[in-house]
Structures are given as structure tokens and as C-alpha cells.
Amino acid sequence: MDTHPQSIKKLYYSIGEVSKTTELKQYVLRYWETEFKQLNPSKNKAGNRTYRQKDIDLILRIKDLLYNQKFTIEGARNMLSGEEEMPIETSVESEAKTGVDLDLLIKIRGELKSILEDLRQ
Predict the structure, then answer these.
(1) Residue with the larger pLDDT of the pair 85 and 23
(2) Over 60: is that where the pLDDT of 26 sits?
(3) Could you tell me the pLDDT band of residue 99, with boundaries at 50, 70 and 90?
(4) Which domains does the chain have, with CATH numbers?
(5) Alpha-carbon distance 8 to 4, whole Å?
(6) How large is the average pLDDT for residues 76-90?
(7) I need a surface site. Which of 56, 59, 87, 104 has the fewest CB within 10 A?
(8) Which residues touch 80 (CB under 8 Å, ≥6 apart)?
(9) Average of pLDDT values for 22-50?
(10) CA 43 to CA 97: how far, in whole Å?
(11) What residues form DSSP beta bridges with 43?
């Protein structure tokens, strides 16, 4: 008999489960909700946050932008809003077609948007 629990994909996850999965503190997740309008988990009748898989994917993308690619919060916000405007195409497909590293261009675009915002203020 197999005693190992099977990984079951759920529709909703609690903030505690998301915290463990993403290796982020719960207060960080709550703070990011205030900084990134795209991150808006619904709440159940008790008022607890309920995250869907798309929310977790977004959290992991934000974490990558902030921690690995060293974006500022504003830069990451600009990157995410820029990604919504662009058609989705993998960087491998894009690079094969044009010979240009799409991820690098997206990063540069986000930083330029951030600089432009600073200049406007």
C-alpha cells in the first residue's frame, strides 16, 4: 500500500499554503497585494484570502523579477503591465525568429518605463 500523499491540484489555496509553496512570508504576500494590482486574490465568507493557481504563478513571476532579476517594485510593476500589453510568445520562439533575446528587451523596456516615470515627476 502506498503511504505517500499524492499531490492533488486544488482550486483554492490558503495564504499559509501559498506561503510555503512560494517560500515567502505571509506579510510579504499581503504587501504585494497593495503594490501589484494584478495580484488580487478573492476572499471567502470568513474573509480569508483564497488564491488560485494563476495567483500563485503571478506571485512566482513577481518573486523572480524582484529577487532574481533585481527589479525595483516599480520596475516589476511596469514589467507586469508591459507583459499584459504584449502578445505572449516564448523567448525561444522569438529568439529563433529574430535572433533577439526577448527577455532582455522586456527587461530594458521595463527599466526605460521606470526612468520615464521618474522624469515625468
Answers:
(1) 23
(2) yes
(3) low
(4) 10-68 (1.10.1660.10), 72-121 (no CATH)
(5) 12
(6) 68
(7) 87
(8) 36, 38, 58, 61, 62, 65
(9) 92
(10) 43
(11) 49
Within 8 A by CB and 6+ apart from 86, the residues are 106
How far apart are alpha carbons 70 and 65 in whole angstroms?
6
Tell me the one-letter amino acid at 4.
H
Residue pair 71/110 in contact (Cβ under 8 Å)? The answer is: yes
The C-alpha cell 529577487 sits at: 67
Q: How far apart are CA 27 and CA 11, in angstroms?
A: 22
Q: Which residue has the cell 535572433?
A: 99
Position of cell 504584449? 86
Phi and psi at residue 17, to the nearest 5°: -65, -40
Give the pLDDT confidence score for residue 95 in this predicted structure.
52
